[in-house]
Amino acid sequence: MHKYALVCLGTISLLSACSTVETRHAASGGFDYLEEAKTTKLVIPENKDRPDFSDEYTLPALGEQAPRDLLGSKLSVQSPQLVLPLVTGSHITEGSREAVVWFDQVDDSQPLDETIWNSLLNFLDEQGIGVVSFDKDKQRLVSDWMVIENVEDSAWYSWTKTERSVGQRFEFQLDVKPHGRSAALKVELKDYLETVNDQVIAELDESTVRLKEIEILNSVISHYAKQIRIADARRLRQIQQGLKMELGFNADGDPAFMVDASYEIAWSRLLLVLRKMGFNVKDLDKSNGLLFVNYTGIDSGWWSGIWGGADELPLEKQEYRLKVVQQGEKTSITFQDSESKALSSQLVTDLFNPIAEVMATDDLDI
User: Fold this and answer.
1) Containing domain of residue 290, as a range?
2) 161 pLDDT band (50/70/90 cuts)?
3) CATH number of the domain to which 353 belongs
């Protein structure tokens, strides 16, 4: 009884040792259908009634570019890999078989192509992958070898190991639209070399090449999305924190508030402050730094909690405009009337203390 069990165990161990990643991805079982001869169409004599035939189960004809040899064990049964557009403003082209993802401009703080390349270079650096060449003018980058070493244990009843090493190099091409607000990042596998124990694999079929390309592209997209989440969280903390503000002059010499923050942070923070101070934002143009507001009066409940029932701002309840401009390391905020004329120095001075107090308040509600 024990000898029989040992023989079976040895046989199973021998079979399991032959299992590789490729065999697990390939179809298995019987392939008797490969031996079947092509059937001819049923011939109906002229003097007999012709039966009704159905085309419901007729196989479609193969296209000219369709592979003819993916039969039996050569047929891959692994799930198809899809490009995952996880980044806000990203999308794919339906029906495309290429490893391509489109990005749309959602942040005007820097050019879109610069943002994409910085994220990709950061990803390669974090992964310890070098860069063979990077041509910013041609929007093209070729990575160094990405080497993956893996030792797989066989099943518990086998005492063998499978040593697997994979090396691959990729080319990244960025196609930027003339307006610069949309860009497609494409990945192509340039070189591939895999060793499984003593077996060397240097050529891959088309489906496996696409799988490798989409795998690395999804990793790049995932890293890009992670960077955006981290940047958004950092930006949110900065917006909620109080900002210092002082009286000064804008580039045109008009009296203005000078906020100790970048344009992006000052703009978002100003929207919170205006809401707290009784301004209703009717329209805005962030790209040009314009805010169209209507002063409706301060919420007495919120205002009294800070000022103990102080008077409202010394402003007529009417429409105003605010001009927000990056000025060196600070951001200038200029109050204007409905005709885009800067308010007087005295009125700006009277507005400064109450607005500066709210601008410096921590943890404003968003």
Assistant:
1) 245-359
2) low
3) 3.30.310.170
